[in-house]
Design brief:
Blueprint (H helix, E strand, L loop, with lengths): L1 H4 L3 E6 L35 H16 L3 E6 L9 H12 L4 E8 L6 H12 L3 E9 L3 H6 L6 H13 L4 E7 L6 H14 L3 E6 L7 H7 L8 H14 L5 E5 L14 H13 L5 E4 L8 H14 L3 E4 L2 H10 L5 E3 L8 H11 L3 E3 L6 H9 L4 E9 L10 H6 L3 H4 L8 E6 L2 E6 L2 E6 L14 E4 L2 E4 L6 E3 L4 H7 L3 E4 L6 H20 L8 H8 L7 E2 L9
Parallel strand pairs: 1-2, 2-3, 3-4, 4-5, 5-6, 6-7, 8-9, 9-10, 10-11, 11-12, 12-19, 18-20
Antiparallel strand pairs: 12-18, 13-14, 14-15, 16-17
Length: about 550
């Protein structure tokens, strides 16, 4: 979408007042056993005209994402369940709204007759972006009958082939965890969808919603929904089985802070703990963002799960969450995160006195003599950053990203939210943008880094350069003997959103270096091979000793 249109395009969900054939009696009554559109439809049967709905949503989305162009998404119920003339009037009205450049029509496979497909093809021929979203849910007719869909897989196959023959891309909706189905059913459903041909996919976990037949079945013990870990595992399997050219429009998850491939689900965490403990290694959980009042239970739930799993220590920044952990799990070891921004031994000792922390990670703003002064005046273990990205902001107090994206890294846990990151190939080079703000432009053979506002190149006084902070990595291998001498308990490797390959390469080098300095601190010298390996993983492929080394003092 970004490549075709040159900027961010966002869907605006609309309710056109439709119903469904398995509700009004033409194919059944009651609708799908799991469906209550009030649980997801905008406005829950919004009676406002489409133009009013669009304007209300447009302003909210533009403020949150910076999007300036939109697709009118007819989402609730069956949005082709009317005469084609009525549909034309509704679709034309949506396209007439300011900055709307396309349509996405959510419907059932048995409600897309030829005249409707011809109408959608006509819009596409005019240059509009048009998608047909078909709610299949499962390729198994027995499952579809059980949940009262009122159609089978054959109708889906016919509708998809007819749409794609007219050049209309199809996005198929599948539900994971339907009654009577397991992972094997999801795999078969995906395989059958891919065999027919598809352009996009949406995966949904099946939620039990109040006032549905499924809720009654659940209360009777006749249905048990998937837990988050099982859903995540199945969804990941489906994604891996999907060809690269098929676009995932959505992969729902109940954890709003999940980063697939970079974090552990609960089952993976349990397996990782077992693996590490069998080898005499400890596992620490970083829970170092700041909860908000309306999401407090998410953070306390994470502490609960950490204690239940047997995590060796939890790294925290928020005092309220520390108090919760101390009261609920007094045996749980607590570490103070760098996000806590404790730069003096008085601050470290405060956290020790009130919350019993046993280790503190110091911010990357102190010189080594200042670090030594902290170590001398506290019995709390001190952990020091040794390698990785640097941050120009005061630890735990970053405002640049939240200013640009509306999301605070201190709560969302990410400097550049993936949904706000944009890459654009232009005649002048590859551009990176954050919520529409141009951060950098890279030449043909120039290595592009992950876009963050503080490490962008900006024009200032007629010159373009790294105006806030130049990309470089902290690398303190040369300081290891001094760190050992002053009593540093642990070296911290910066690893936010890093890959397993990064972790393996960096820790291999640092393990060898730490072993070498312990064996012979006086004769220690980093090897060229170590530095070469770390150079490959450094921002800007350059290193610094940061604030630790201040020769002018």
């Amino acid at each position: 979408m970004l490549e075709r249109h040159g900027e961010r395009v966002h869907k605006v969900a609309l309710d056109a007042g439709f119903t469904c054939p398995n509700r009004d009696g033409s194919k059944g009554i009651g609708g799908c056993t799991f469906c209550n559109n009030k649980s997801f439809a905008p406005g829950a049967r919004d009676p406002a005209p489409l133009a009013a709905q669009f304007e209300r949503a447009r302003g909210r989305i533009a403020r949150g994402t910076g999007a300036r162009r939109f697709i009118a998404y007819f989402q609730a119920y069956t949005n082709t369940y009317a005469h084609v003339d009525e549909l034309r009037t509704l679709y034309d009205a949506a396209l007439a709204a300011p900055d709307v450049m396309g349509l996405s029509i959510g419907t059932r496979p048995d409600c897309v007759p030829a005249p409707v497909l011809d109408l959608l093809a006509e819009y596409r021929e005019r240059g509009h972006e048009v998608w047909l979203e078909l709610g299949l849910q499962s390729a198994f007719d027995a499952t579809l009958a059980r949940v009262n869909r009122g159609h089978g897989f054959a109708e889906y196959e016919t509708a998809t082939r007819a749409a794609r023959a007219r050049g209309i891309p199809v996005c198929c909706h599948l539900i994971v965890g339907l009654p009577g189905e397991d992972a094997s059913h999801s795999h078969v459903s995906l395989d059958r969808v891919l065999a027919v041909g598809v352009d996009g996919l949406k995966l949904h976990p099946l939620h039990v919603v109040k006032h549905t037949k499924l809720a009654i079945e659940w209360k009777r013990g006749e249905y048990e929904p998937l837990n988050e870990a099982d859903y995540t595992r199945i969804a990941a399997d489906l994604i891996e089985r999907t060809p690269w050219e098929v676009v995932y429009h959505r992969v729902d998850n109940t954890n709003a802070r999940a980063f697939p491939g970079l974090n552990f689900d609960e089952a993976q965490a349990a397996e990782g703990l077992r693996y590490a403990h069998e080898r005499g290694r400890r596992v620490l959980l970083a829970l170092n963002t700041y909860p908000q009042s309306d999401t407090w239970q998410r953070w306390t739930g994470a502490v609960d799960r950490a204690a239940k799993l047997g995590i060796d220590a939890v790294i925290l920044a928020d005092p309220g969450l520390m108090r919760y952990a101390v009261r609920q799990y007094p045996q749980l070891r607590l570490h103070l995160s760098v996000q806590g921004s404790a730069t003096s031994y008085e601050a470290v000792n405060f956290y020790r006195e009130h919350f019993g922390i046993q280790r503190a990670v110091l911010p990357r703003v102190l010189s080594l003599p200042q670090v030594e002064n902290v170590v001398k005046h506290t019995d709390v273990e001190i952990e020091l950053f040794g390698f990785g990205g640097l941050c120009v902001m005061v630890e735990g107090r970053c405002l640049l990203s939240s200013y640009c994206t509306g999301e605070s890294p201190n709560s969302a846990g990410v400097c550049s939210p993936p949904k706000a990151v944009q890459w654009m190939d232009t005649p002048t080079g590859l551009e990176s943008r954050l919520n529409g703000v141009l951060l950098d432009r890279y030449g043909k053979n120039e290595k592009a880094g992950y876009p963050t506002l503080c490490k962008g190149r900006f024009e200032v006084g007629g010159e373009t350069y790294y105006a806030i902070e130049e990309p470089t990595s902290l690398n303190t291998l040369d300081l290891l003997p001094e760190m050992l001498k002053i009593g540093i308990a642990a070296i911290k490797i910066e690893g936010r959103q890093r890959s397993p390959a990064y972790v393996a390469q960096v820790t291999k080098v640092w393990r060898a270096a730490i072993d070498a300095v312990k064996e012979n601190a006086a004769g220690f010298k980093p090897t060229p091979a170590w530095q070469a390996e770390l150079n490959k993983l450094s921002e800007g492929q350059s290193h610094t000793l940061g604030a630790y080394h201040r020769p002018w003092k």
